[in-house]
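Sorry to interrupt, but I need a hand with the structure work. Could you write out one complete protein record for me, on any chain you like? Could you add the entry underneath, on a fresh line?
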Amino acid sequence: MSFLELNLHPSILSNLADQGYQSPTPIQAQAIPVAIQGKDLLGIAKTGSGKTASFVLPLLNELVSKAVSERNRQPNVLVLVPTRELAVQVADVFKVFSRNLKHPVKSMAVFGGVSINPQMKAIFGVDILIATPGRLLDLQRSNAVDLSKVKRLVIDEADKMLNLGFKKEMQEIIALLPKKRQNLLFSATLSDQLAGLNSVVLSNPVVIKIEEKVADVELINLSGYFVSDERKGPLLRHLIRAKKMKQVLVFTSSGIKANKVAAKLIKNGIPALPIHGKKSQSARLAALDKFKSGKLQVLVATDLISRGIDIDALPYVINYELPRSPKDFVHRVGRTGRAKSEGLAISFVNREETHHLKVILKKMKRYIDMIDSETLDF
């Protein structure tokens, strides 16, 4: 199938061609026609499957031929996302595919961690607003935005939104929206908690679930080391040097640990930066851009911001510490092995975590040959 079969406006097709996109991913092929028809949609597909374009393209398609008669503080489209990084990423996709449209479409991302005043000023005249829940409510309470004219609501990464405790804020936002609207909800997983949200937000939705292909999972090679906590740092540096790793994403359980790991790498001559929720927005974006461009060898991250890290051919992921949830483990290692490129995901495990690792691997239906780090000379 090609994008030509999806009834998209010629100017949008031109932008797709300019970006080198030739054919839609499975979620795009199924979701775009449904969204264009104005139906509610629940899309379940893993991160990295092309979900963002699944709603960006049909939303732009709806706005492309409609001249905006009045500029105000009433956006036509609202996209809710869980993190600042994802808000910026989604806004970038809207801007890329908004070029050279018949009528200009203004999109904007708003999020916390930065001054609210510039956002309050810039929101005037915005057609598509991408927002994290907390900052959106701050703007609404300051009368900087009016949600009463929203015709289309998108909730992206809904599973992550619920896991981060945004349910109350989302309910408050939904109560501010017109009852008659189109709703598009996307998630990497389908849980009982998500089903409860669906019943509140969606009306007779079309449900699209894209099963992960075994071949995609198999592109991720899993490896593991039994290692005591005090030897994790030396092991990390040893592997980076021995395997000549050029682009490594390291996961830790906290921002404090991310800072410590990055500092130790730098002290030992390995370029690294930490990225987590307590870093300023400018610092986070700068680190992410540097890593994506290949100018930074190691990025040390927490699960909170990982959804904004989307790199087609990331070769290495290292779990410096195991996550609590098997879902988070799957999500972490899923940062690699994309776009038909093989990737290696390495996990550091102390002996007390053996049972937890077995639970994770059982969920994934995978097996790891563990290496005892005590046998290595480093």
Notes: The CA atoms of residues 219 and 342 lie 5 Å apart. The chain has a mean pLDDT of 86. DSSP finds 15 helices and 14 strands in the chain. The first helix runs from residue 10 to 18.
